[in-house]
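Good morning C.,

I know you're traveling, so I'll keep this short. The sequence:
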Amino acid sequence: MAALAGVALVGGLGGCAPSEPAGAAGVPHEGTIGLLLPEAQTARYEASDHPTFVAVTGRRCPGCTVLYANAGQDAAAQLQQAESMLAQGADVLVLDAVDTVAAAGIVAQAKRLGAQVIAYDRFVDGADYYVSYDYEFIGFLLGSALAGAVTERESEKDAEPEAGPDAGEDTGQDAGGNDTDRPGVLLAHGSATEPNALAIAAGTRRALEGEDIDVLAEYYTPDWSPDKATEWTEAMLTRFPGQVDGVLAANDGIAGGAIAAAKAAGLDPVPVTTGQDGELAAVQRIVAGDQYMTVYKATDQQAQTAAELAVRVLRGEEPRTTAVIQGVPTVLLAPRAVGVDDVQHVIVDGHVYTTDEICVPAYRDACERAGLIGEGAR
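The tokens, ready to paste straight into the viewer:
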């Protein structure tokens, strides 16, 4: 508890309240670090990134004051929060930008005041350091998983014996003359204003290039909104009846929206659907067979890395990095693709979620089939 004496927690859109100096616990004050997160709609930010960052910073630097704010998806509010932190003497800002273009103003103000900026999760031009995952590689994992799964399903369908007097009369074309023998997929990307979403989309296209798959339609989901994803998927299922074999959803929220639309349309099984973030609801959908996979990013590892980097920068050290992106020293972390067979060793054994959290009553039967609980538990 003494190690956390220098932490000030501020949420919502307000300014950053001053914390008690860490020296009050008998530890010399070393400096102030500000953590700025973009929104709370994505579960990881408040459930993982924020508490892990605070805990690791407190442990590594008991003499550090930590200020925190969440912008609620409001770029203007984030600018005000950053200004408040700088006014309180922040030496280092760890910034997960709502708008990476607008965030250049935060970087400029920090530099004028002699503070350093660590871009977190989303690249910001001019930052001193960058900590994130390789989002183009994440897109490649999503596209590769989707291509493999829909191709396998198509092969299984082709292997099934045809029945009925007209079984041999299939022309292999729909009413518009398009080839219906190839699997058809929808690409539900993230927000078009977000560089990570664009990188994921680029990786997705690279994975699908040369595959015997038809991309029926693409959509950049405003604010990564699950509701918008549901609406768009509903419209596409109506536009392409019987042709949607898979949905490349860029994160788990979009995946949930797409799956909800497929279920509302009476599709059983639902199209192969990907995801990203390893959210609890997504893991449960994977166990139940509704979502095919997710890409798990160890957000606690990312927050820990950013916290350790911030402390080193505050102390004037030169941290080791793994890459340079647009002139910015960068630490890139490795994501993991997680399907139903990976839940035990990646999610449960990795202490991301417990079987009690995953296997609530609605998912107990599915968990038993997956070998997470019961006699067949691994």
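Safe travels,
E.
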